[in-house]
Structures are given as C-alpha cells and as structure tokens.
Amino acid sequence: MANFPTPDDRFYKKESLIKAFGVLSIVMLVSTLWMVLDDYGREWKGYQAEFMALKKGRAEKALEEAKAQIDPAAVQKAQEAVAAAQTGLKAKESEINRVEKELIQLRTKEKNAVTKFQSAKAVWDVEKYQYEAKWGHEIAEGHESHGPEAGLARQKVFDSLAKVMKLKDDANHLSQSAEDKEKESKSLMAEKSEAEKSLKVLNADVDRLVASKEASELTLHKLLRSAPLLDFADSVFKLKQIVVPTIRDDVYFAQLQKVDRCTSCHLAIDTPGFESEPQPFKTHPKLDLILGSRSPHPIDKIGCTVCHEGRGPSSHFVRAAHTPQSEEQKKAWEKKHHWHEMHHVIEKMIPLQYIEGKCRVCHRQTEYVPKAEKLNSSVQLVKAAGCYGCHRIEGWDHLRKPAPSLKRVKGKVTRDWIVKWVKNPQSFNENARMPAAFFQSNTNSEEFKAYQEAEAQAITDYVLSLSDEYRPSHTGQLGNAARGKEVFGTVGCLGCHNMDDYERKLGRFSLAPDLSTVGSKVNKDWLYSWLKNPKHYWSETTMPSLRLTDSEIADLTAYLSGKHNAEFDAQEAGTVDVEMQKKVLGLYLLRDPKFAPATDKRIAEHLSALSPAEVAEQLGKNGVTRYGCFGCHEIKGFETTQGIGTELTEEGSKPVNKFDFGLLHLDHSVVAWLDKKFENTRSFDEGIVKEYLDILRMPQYGFNKAERDSLITFILGLTSQKIDAPSAKILNASEAKIEDGMRVIHKYNCQGCHRVEMLHVELPQDHPKWEEHEAAKYNLEGRILKYYEEDTSLGPPPLVTQGARTKTAWTHAFLNNPLPKLRDKLQVRMPSFQMDNDEINTIVEGWGNTPGVEFPISQPTRIAMSPQRLAGARTLINRLQCLNCHTMGEMLTPAQMEGSKGLAPDFKKANKRLRRQWIIDLLKDPQKMIPETRMPGFWPDGQSPAPDILGGDSEAQLEAIADYLLYLGQGSVETVEAKP
Amino acid sequence: MAITKILTESINFLCQPSILFTLSVAVFFAVLFLWREKFAQTRTIWAIEIGMALFIALSMFNPTFRDVVTKPDNVPIVGMLFLLAFFLWLTINKMVTNDQLIAEGKDVENKKESKELVFTWPDLVFSEFICTIGVWCLLVIWSVCLKAPLEEPANPVETPNPSKAPWYFLGLQEMLVYYDPWLAGVVFPSLILVGLILIPYIDTNPKGNGYYTFVERKLAVTSFLFGFLILWILLIVLGTFLRGPNWNFFGPYEVWDLHKLEVLTNINLSEYIFREFGLNGGKLPDNVFIREGVGMILSLAYIVAGPVLMAKYLCKGMLERMGKPRFYIFAFLMLSMASLPLKMVLRWLFNLKYIVAIPEWFFNI
C-alpha cells in the first residue's frame, strides 16, 4: 500500500500523506465516538439512573428494616419444619418414585390417545365432506334421495363418527386417571409444600424488597441493553410520555393532542412517598387533589402542560422552558443546568407561584374554584378593584358596574368634594378603592399638570350637569355619636365596611367603601335617608337595610358625620381656568373628525364662541370619554358604552412581544410587564415623547406586592386554551343551579359575614405555613368573624350545609324577611336585602340542588311519637342539658343570657325550619355540619352517651331526638301506639 | 474606554453601504491593477488571514458583534470569508507567477503536468480518501458543537424582523433596496444565469486555457471578479452582518434597535423633474409616457447607445474581433451588470428612487 512512487513535481510528500491519513483517521474515530456519546447521553437518562439509585437506596433501607423485623426464632422453627418434612419425605421415597413413574406413564398414554383421536377426527372430517359433496347437495335441493345407496353412505358416516367419539372417550379416561394420579402425588408432597409455604410467608416482605432492590439495580446487563445502537430492543431508560387526546395544543395550522414527556424525569410525580426528595423526583403536592389515581385530576387524563405550560414534548430541562420563580432560582439554574431563556417558545412554563390561576382554564363556569384559595382571592380582588369595568373579561359580563352610580350624585356630595376626590381619591381616604386618574408619573410637566387641573374641573362640572336631582327622604335627626359607634361595631356594618375605630381588618379592596372619613363626604340628611332605605338613592345598590330603628339611625348618623378628614377638608378645590380649558378642548378638537381638516384658526373660532359652561361641558364630555369613567360608574348617556380597557379574556396567552415595554429595561417576560404595570400603570411612558392626548391613561391603583402577585395569578389563567368536555369541568344541570344561587350570594356579599362554600382549605398542622394560613382564615369568607376572635359563635353562623339544613319555604321566607331572631344573644343582625323574588328563588333553588337533598319539600312534617320514644327523647334532652344553650319557645331577657344561653336556636322553630336528616347528622358530628360550633358532640364515633335510654341504641336515640324537636314545633300533642 | 469607542464608531461609520461599497471597489481595482505583485506574496495571505482572525477575536468583546457572528446561521459565512480570502490570494498568486513566466518567455507553470498521465493511486483515490475523512471529521464536530436551532411552530401573526433570505440569496435581497422586486428578483437573477451560460460563447479570447493568467485575460478576469466579489459576496456580507430590523443598516458594533428610524425619503426622477422645475403646474401628468418620458429615454439610450459608444471608445477592436451579435450581447450584459452599482451610486448621491416609475404596470427601473 505504501509503495507508490512519488514523482518529483507533486505538491505532496508520501510521508506527509500517510501521516495525514493516520492523524485524520484517529480524529475521525474520536469524533464519531464523541458524536455517539453526545447523541445517546441524554439528560433524562441520567435522571432515570439517579432515580433507580434512589429507589435502590430506599429498598435497601426498607430491606434492613424488614430484615430486622423478622423473628429469627420463627424462621428457625419454619426451617426446622421444612427439614422435618424433608426427612418425612425420605421415608416415603419409594412410594413417591412409584407414583411419579406411573404419572409419567399415564401422561404419555394420554398424549398418545389424544393424538390418535385427533388424527381419526381429521380423517372423519374428510369422510363427512366427501359424503356431503356426493350426496348432500342433491338431498338439500330436494331431488330423490337415490334410494338405498344414499342411506347406506349416510349410515357409514355416522358409524365412523361413533368410532371417533370412542377414541375421544378413551383419551378423556386417561386424562382423568392422570389427574387423579397427580393429586395423589401432590398429597404425598403436601407436608413439605406446606412447610415451605409458611417459610416463604415469613420471608415475603424481604423477598419482595430484594426483588425491588434488584429491579432498581443497574447491572452490566442492563447497561448493555441501554447501550447505543443496542437500545432499540428493550432499553432500561425509556422516554415516558402521557398523551391526552382530548386536550389540544394550537399550533396555528393544526390542533395537536398534548404529548407530555415530563414524566421521563419527574418519575415519582404521582407516587406518594417522595415528598421530601429533591426535584425532579418530588411527589406533586396535594396528590389527593391533583394527579393521584383517585383524584379528580388523574395524571393520565390531564398530563402536565395543560396547567404548567411549557414544551411538553421536550425531554431536556432547558428546552422544556422551565421558568424560575425568582432571581435566586434563576442564578442557581444558570449555574447548575446552564439555563437560558427559550426566546422562541411562546408558552413557557408559568412560575409556580402563579400556577393556581390556570385552574380557571377548565373550571370556567363557576365564580370560585373549589380548593383554589389563591385563585379565589384573586377573583375577589378583581371584583373589588373593578378591573372588569373597563377591561372586558368573558364570563364576567353578568356583574353590575363596580362603583356607585353617578346618576344622582348631585344630591349626595358637593362640587368641591368631587373635584378634590377626582384629582386625588387617596387624599380623602387612604383606603379609597377608586384609583387615581390624574397627576401621575407621566403628567409631571407644568404644562400637563395645568391640563390635568383643567380636565378634572371640567369633568366634575359635566358629571354634575348630567346628574338628576335627588332629595333625601328624611332630615337627619339628632343622635348620640358614642352610641352610634357602638351600634356600628355590633349590628354588622363591619362585615362589609372598614372603619379605623375598629382596626381595619378587611383589606383595602373590600366590596363596600371605607367609612373612616365619610363625614367629609356626605351630609347628615343623605346619611339618614341612606341608612333608612339605601334603595331610595340607588336602586341597584347591594347595601341592605339593617332594620335600624330611628334612634339607631340617628346615632349612626351622628357618629358617621363626625368622621372627618381634616386635611382633606382644608384642601383647596382649585379654580376653573377657562383659558386652559379652552386650550385642552382645542387639543381634543384637533383630533375630532367633525373638525377635519383642523386648523388652529377654525378651532380658535369655535372656542371663542363658547361660554365657560359650554367649554366645561364639551371638555368634560371629551374627558369622560377619554378616561372611561363610565366603565365603573353608571353615568347618564353612557350606560352601555364599552369600557376603554383592553379585553383581557385571553391576556394570559398574549405573546410577550405584543406588550409595550416602552424604554424600560425589564426582564422580557409577561410576568415582569404585569408586575411593573400594576406597580405604576403609567411607567411605560417614562422617557418617551408623547402628545398630551396620547399618554397612557390607566389610573394608578398602588397595588402592593401581594396584590400584584394575586392579579398576575388571575391574568395568567386567562388563556386562549379551548378545553371542552370531557376534560373541562362542565356543570350539569343541578351544578349550574347551585352556581346560579352562589352568584346571587356573591353579589350581596353574604360571605362578608357567613362562611358558605368553605373556601378556606385547612392545612395539616405540621405545614411550615400553617400559622400564616390560619391567620388568614377569614380572608375569603366570614370576614366579620375577624372581629369575633374570642368566640366566633357570637358572630354570624356558617351556612356550609344550608341546602341540607333548612326547608325550602323557610329559607325563602327568611331571605325575604329575616325575622324573628334565631339566636337571642347575637347582636349582629342579618340584614334585609330587599332582593326580588327571582333572586331569592335562585338562591333557594341553588341550595336545593345540593346533592342528596330533596327539593322542594312540600309536605309539612307531622310527627307522631310513641310515649316511650317521647319519654326517651325528653330524658335525653334533660340529661344532655340542651337547654343550657337552646331555648324552648321563650324570649330571653338580657339577664337570662348567661354563658351560652341564647347562642343556640329555639327548639320550637325547628319544625318549620330544619330538615329531619340534618338534625340527625348534626347530632352525630356537629363540627362537620357547623364548623367551629360550640355545640358539643354527644355521640363520638356513634357511641351512645346514655346506654340506658331507648336500649342504648344510638340510631334510635338520634331519631327520637330529631322527631321530638320537630314535634315540639307543631303545636299539638299527638301520640300513637308503640312502634318498633 | 475611549479608544475602543473611537474604533467602534469609526468602523460602524466605514461599514455604511455607500462607504463600504466605494472603498471596496477602490481596493478591488487597486489590488488587481496596482498591487498585484505585492498581493501575490505569501506573507500577504498570512497577514490577511491573521488580521481577519484578530479582528474577529477582538470584536467578540462587543456583545452585538458576538450575537450576530456566532448565530449558528452566520458561522458558515464567517468561515467562507476566510476561505474566500485564501482562494482569491491563491488565484492572484498563480496569475502573477504565470504572468512573470510569460513575460520571461517561458512556459507557464504546470503546463507539462496538464498534459501528462497521472496515477489513480495515490493522486486520485488516496488524497480524496484523506479529504473524505477530513470532511467527515469537520462535519461531525461542527454538528455536535453547533446544533441546528429549533424554533417554535411558525406563528402567522408574528413575522420575524428582520426576515432574511438564505445567505446565497442575500445579495439579491440587498439589491431589493435599490431596485424594484421585478428587476431585482426576476430580471437580474435571470440575466446572471443567462450571462454565465453565455460566457463560453462570448469569450473569444484564445489565451489562458488551462493556466492562470491576468495580463492575457484582463477583461474577463476583472469583469468576473468584479461581479463575484463586489456585486455578490460584498452584498452577501452586507446582508448577513450589517442589516438589522426593518432592513436598516447597523454597524457591526451597533445594537439592533427595533425602533431605529432613518430618513429615507427617495424621489423618482419624474417627480424631481416635474416638481422641481414646476412643469405641468408641479403636478405629475397622468399619461405614463409624458410622465416617465425622460427616464425612458435615458434608459433606452443606456441600452441602445451604450453598446455603440462602448464599441467606439471603450472596447476598441472588439467589435471586429467578436462580430456584431457576440459583441452586442456582451455589451448588453456588461451594461446590465454596471447598472447595479450605477443605480446604487445614484441612490446614495441623489436619493433617487426610480428612473422610470410605472407602478400601474408594476414596472419600475
């Protein structure tokens, strides 16, 4: 090979060529090996190997423990038993051998007989066919049977069949004999097999764990199976994927079914027991709710990316678009995984702190999603902050406008108050929910500030000009402010309103305004009329009537009108500068299509012809249109105008490059943009040159970090994913009715006082965040209970089992008019909401559709009790001292309300009010029916507290009490013959 | 550092299309006609290659440069430039060597070799085999180090900005800046192809068969290298490295700002004539021929009178040597080729948009 001549005039030398060949060949080998390793050495295989090691370690540990558990004495005994059995067998050795031999012979004979039968049958099948071919057709077609020949042939066939069947019979006989012989053999060996079995049972756990340990072991054989090129057959490392055909990914030209390969690395995600392992082997939190096989969201039905987003088909940490939750995590990932952002992936994974927002993607039809506390609190925040007023969100269209109506504002507040309020709502009350539309970070120049002043003045005058007249229905009477303060704190105002005298506990964004400075806003007459009947001023208000007496109203009015904000009162309202207003109006007119082509001259002409009032009106109208006041407030002429904000229905799916970051250097992500926007809504105008009418106009809310995170959670859940049945939660008819009822309940803020849906999820006591979470127990529901920390039974009761609890007619009547008082001692009053009949029916029907509840109950309950049961019930009531808390039809004086007396409802009301089964359920487990109730449970675990009454039978006792309570309220004494 | 800033700003400035193009043309002609011998020396190519490597290495400190040059799509172009410099040098080196030999009256290099027998082994197979292994190694190592980027499924509502053609079409995409799409996208590419096909039929120069030479084939070498290096490679380099979002010019160290705005109001010749001189009341006439008359005449003159003038003044003797059909085809192709740099210069000097602008017929020159 190396013997080639090298002529003189070549550029190469033989040696150099050979050297080059050698070097390059080695490089080729190395680079090819490198390529193979690079291709086969996947990250996920490493994780699977790590997981196997983890499982092996666990199995080893468990094995140690199992071995320790084995009683050596028992094992010894079992082994001895085996040995003894073995020796016993030895004695019978000859017999066993004989039986074995016979068994073998029988089996051989059986086999031969079967073969013989099968061959004979095959031959007969041919015979049958031949007969049918020769004679069968003709007979079937009805021709003459050709005389005796046919008959003979037919007979022959049947004779042959008989012979074949005889052979089968022989074979079966032999089978039977073999079976019997086998049984004989087994019974001879029985003792030994029994002993061996007992030994095996003792070692069962150990054997199992040894097997599991071996399964997790990476032997050489297993590695070879997984080697490059050889792994096509049965590699130990396999990509695991979950395919969800009912949930589709939109890739613009097709709808692809979801393919999630997350479980290739997250190997224990749906296996309990791995909660304390490091990622990626950690079990999913709340496995009983999510991913568990018995949860409502089993992993094979939903996969992973429907909630977490990211690139499901990827099997690589970085390329799957994992998103870090914080800067620290980002740095740690950059170091460990060489993490970088996947710029071209639109749907990157959602940072875990916002993940609950995605529950909405499937649970679209309910306002609250059960067990999703973060999401539910974000829904409450969005409702209270009123985002949906300007920004349309699909599914939120049924809500009333979030802010009070301005149709009669002329009769409520003064002009000066409105101007000062519009310019800076938080100067009136730091807790004011109205955001500040004027004087923000992008109007800092002198010029713009002057424009803002002019606009604020004009808008005020315009809105006032649109307002109808309103005169309060009453004049304010004299009252006692100190008594008023007490009434305020006891009668139930604190369920919705914040008040500084009572330590504001409801958070800034509650559904009703903070009244700490209300005296600087409204006059006494208005307050008096409002408290008497809120609907007189505003028919759509959700403020109820508290059935206050005139003196109570007078006291409250005195108290509330004394709540001033001195600084705000002292503020100047500012003056109207008509020239400036004309200038600003000119800016608007330059863009008005009616004035096109707009020249300065033309506009100046138009403006000079206007009176100051007309200037204010026109500028005010332009201003209201521009700032979108009508999104939150009802204003005459603007009732149906659409809000000025971007529609948010699919905001969570908006690609990040559609968000305008202005000139700010933020992390280029949707989360960073939203965070900045909520922090300062005008921040993206910084450094940009814009005309006055082009500057950003979303008002400033001043959300704190927790509120911002909550809003981001909400918005990231507003995606364009179209998930339908069977994957999405589609309400059936009765669930829809329940939701309709709940919507009315949400509307009137029943949850300001009552717990209705158990939105608060209990954490296990050893959870690191338990304390924090407990402190926030009443944030979502039952907020007024924060003021009853020592004893929540002094506050409004929970309504969590209301559907099963009260009778339809009673509920209806109560919601219409909640009198008489149910619990004498309670000072907090259930208000009269003045709902119309449809709304009450919706609530009642909603509760009536609670699963297992009979709806509607039409027949009145007539109870008849035998004297024995009556006596038993009476004795029980006395023994259990029920009347320490409950009343029996009497009205209590304050002196009589000692201890718990008066906290519990009257027995005589039970007949019209309570359902029989509920009473029994309550007695069995009071905490379940009424959380945190003071009512004790007398039948723990079904054990009777009174074994001598009614034969100690718990069921009988419970039924007797239930019947007795219902009997008490029916107003007549009726007994019947004893019933078993 | 101030010196870095001065350097980067001046390089950004020099890379502007007008300046880069002019400088490149000047250097091109200088190298070919003035500095051939110096350029052909071995140390020249070392200097060039090392210089390029140093330039790229130092520039890597700049993040913008780094992002553009290390983009997996652009890495081959960088490699190609190194190879291009080498092969260009090799060509000129061979040309100069042969020219010297011709001047001395000797036979050109390898003339004998081109006629004699060569062994298959090792001259063909062994060296090819070694090259095969070498290419294998290169491709494997390249594919392991620079993986093909996989982006997300194409989004119909989101166009990438800039949207660049594959590198071999970037020259044409750059031409689109100066010419109407019909011309830059259809006519000129066709002319390029047709022109290349016609070369053997037009080229009547019997010299230079099988060996490199410059003095014997001045016209062919110059015109081909001009077309290849200036009108093709330079435009590709421009399109790959110096064009950013919205096809704006960005110097190699200039951050690609999506919002960069440059004044680029260009006017048609007809608009200039009628508005500037106030003809027809300053309004463009409706009749296409009146409106574009001047432009049409100029263009026709260029194509019709051009060859005639070429024959008389520029290419003396060629008409007789080649014969009318060959010469006129040759002249037409040369004039078309020259029209591109000519239009570019007119654009840079006068902001000229179209010489003939007939949007009604989708035809603009």
Short note summarizing the structure:
The complex is a heterodimer of chains A (980) and B (365). With 980 residues, chain A is an all-alpha fold.
Blueprint (SSEs and pairs):
The complex is a heterodimer of chains A (980) and B (365).
Chain A: H1 14-40, H2 43-69, H3 72-91, H4 93-140, H5 148-202, H6 204-215, H7 220-225, E1 242-250, E2 255-260, H8 299-302, H9 305-308, H10 327-337, H11 373-385, H12 387-390, H13 415-423, H14 425-428, H15 446-466, H16 481-491, H17 524-532, H18 550-561, H19 566-570, H20 578-590, H21 600-608, H22 612-627, H23 670-679, H24 705-716, H25 733-747, H26 770-775, H27 802-805, H28 808-816, H29 837-848, H30 867-879, H31 910-913, H32 916-924, H33 926-929, H34 954-968
Antiparallel strand pairs in A: 1-2
Helix pairs in contact in A: 2-6, 3-5, 4-5, 11-24, 13-15, 15-20, 15-22, 16-18, 17-18, 20-21, 20-22, 23-24, 25-29, 28-29, 30-34, 32-34
Chain B: H1 2-14, H2 17-34, H3 36-39, H4 42-59, H5 63-69, H6 75-103, H7 125-145, H8 170-178, H9 181-202, H10 218-241, H11 269-276, H12 288-291, H13 293-314, H14 318-322, H15 324-350, E1 357-358, E2 363-364
Helix pairs in contact in B: 2-10, 4-6, 8-9, 8-10, 9-15, 13-15
